[in-house]
Amino acid sequence: MSFIEMKDRAFTLIELLVVISIIGILISISLFGIGNARKSSRDAKRKSDLETIRSALEMYKADVGGYPANAPDPGHPLQYQDNEYLASWPEDPLPARSYAYYSNQVTYTVCAALETDTRLEAKCTDMNCGEDVTCSYAVENP
Question: Which domain holds residue 24?
Fold first, then answer.
């Protein structure tokens, strides 16, 4: 095989730049899509956590006759005497955020700040879900 034949089989600089540009565009588009999927995933976890808390609070009320005045610290159980209703109070998936809890022992509201749906619920307007984060999703007693 001669040098001329080998030269014809190589890529030009323009061809390489075009391929690298296309790959870069595809990677940036996929990273943008993954970011939105992560936000949706964290929001689904928040909603699931709030439903778990609701269930535990209802069991607590059935045994005690009212809701707890304050939520346990994140990571600590919701319990009364020997009964444990929630092994550990859930934490928000993002460290700078938290779930807000309000109770007058007759009713309760638990709020979270969603990332993909920022419409504010009236039940959460006075509650803070972290540093400069307004709560936007709530569950309350049935």
Answer: 3-140
